[in-house]
Amino acid sequence: MAGSRDFINRRIHSLLGVIPIGIFLVQHLVVNHFATRDAEAFNKAAHFMESLPFRIFLETFVIYLPILFHAVYGLYITFQAKNNVTRYGYFRNMMFLVQRVTGVITLIFIAWHVWETRVQAAFGQEVNFDMMADILSSPFMVAFYLVGVLSAVFHFANGLWSFFVSWGLTVSPRSQKISTYVTMGVFVALAIVSVRTIFAFI
Amino acid sequence: MSTKMVKFIISRQDNPETAPYLEEFEIPHRPNMNVISALMEIRRNPVNAKGEATTPVTWEMGCLEEVCGACSMVINGKPRQSCTALVDQLEQPIRLEPMKTFPVVRDLAIDRSRMFDALKRVKAWIPIDGTYDLGPGPRMPETKRQWAYELSKCMTCGVCLEACPNVNTNSDFIGPAPLSQVRLFNAHPTGEMNKEERLNAIMDDGGLAECGNSQNCVQSCPKGIPLTTSIAALNRDTSFQAFKNFFGSDR
């Protein structure tokens, strides 16, 4: 054995969050950003993604299974912690809590988002600009999407920081500090991309 | 002139099974007193703030100079050693609680056995015993010795376990202290010969992987031990070790 079950699961959890889930997230946000040009550009890009060969296999192995594992094991990790930010209000301890809170929000958001788009597509609805514009016509859904997407983006960016620590890439305090700045830069950049996209549908 | 009084609110517990309760004490102030000398004063005359006779408060202590780790408790919300907690530097009333991450024996006395068990589990020693004289070991560079000395300051006081959100009853995490000891003994030129054994021990359940990077440990350690650097360095070492274990290695 390469280590205990906990050790392997924790490492796989950390890896899957970046590869492939993180890469998929960035790709998904970038493709959706076509919506800021016009409806036609978005529809063309969405159609290209949906007509990729071996689509169901790509979805299963790059998206569904990794997210399922990451979510189930992530919940287990979340409920194992006894958060103590009131007593120890240090920056990293707050990030530790926010990482768990955004993880749970992201899971709820993704479940709803997949139901509204991918599952509806499986039932024969067409996923296009109008579908999203229709969903985002309600102010509640705009708020829900903003919270959900920003949670996902934060969870990815801060998760990238812990991925670098968990695999032993950033060891020294200085490298971990620099990586905090870099990953928060990733958060800001992706937040701009995703908020612009959401407002493009309104 | 009336004497200045120091007020204490102490979390008390009669035995491991009974419920904890709070008791207030007021004792006369003396210059330069620390939490331990205050507790000794209560022990000398165990009367609470209401004037009722009570049992003396139980706590543990040893060296009285912050090197043994026995007198750790939660003082005004933060775990630390009571010997170096000077009363004049603390906000009053001074609240004393046991470190509840550990089983409470009585009042402020806790049982830190789990930490010593963890040190055994990770083989935090250097095996040199044999049936014949093995001769001198490899030399340790002075710069490395000075660096390793910082890690060797760990006194198993338990403050890092108390501060860690992942050390609790839901998890079997051994905590930061024994992990950092693995790094200390793996850095020693002779200890390094058994590096793999220790790495494999911390790759077991409740080991290194349970760390969630809240980094409270390094903020709380009274000895300033770079615990999170040790953990990250061990993450790197175990990454390699895991691949070696799985795929085999020509060493």
UniProtKB/TrEMBL annotation, chain A:
It comes from the Bacteria. The keyword Transmembrane applies. It is found in: Membrane. The chain crosses the membrane at residues 12-34, 54-76, 97-115, 135-157, 178-199. Keywords: Heme, Iron, Membrane, Metal-binding, Transmembrane, Transmembrane helix. Coiled coil: none annotated. This is Succinate dehydrogenase cytochrome b558 subunit.
TrEMBL record, chain B:
It comes from the Bacteria. Its EC number is 1.3.5.1. It is an enzyme of class 1 (oxidoreductase). GO terms for biological process: respiratory electron transport chain; tricarboxylic acid cycle. Transmembrane segments: none annotated. The keyword Amino-acid biosynthesis does not apply. InterPro entries: 2Fe-2S_ferredoxin-like_sf, 4Fe4S_Fe-S-bd, 4Fe4S_Fe_S_CS, Beta-grasp_dom_sf, Helical_ferredxn, SDH/FRD_Iron-Sulfur, Succ_DH/fum_Rdtase_Fe-S, Succ_DH/fum_Rdtase_N. One of its GO terms (molecular function) is succinate dehydrogenase (quinone) activity. Its cofactor is [3Fe-4S] cluster; [2Fe-2S] cluster; [4Fe-4S] cluster. Keywords: 2Fe-2S, 3Fe-4S, 4Fe-4S, Iron, Iron-sulfur, Metal-binding, Oxidoreductase, Tricarboxylic acid cycle. Belongs to the succinate dehydrogenase/fumarate reductase iron-sulfur protein family. PANTHER family: SUCCINATE DEHYDROGENASE [UBIQUINONE] IRON-SULFUR SUBUNIT, MITOCHONDRIAL (PTHR11921:SF29), SUCCINATE DEHYDROGENASE IRON-SULFUR PROTEIN (PTHR11921). NCBIfam families: dhsB, PRK08640.1. This is succinate dehydrogenase. It comes from Fictibacillus phosphorivorans. The gene is sdhB.
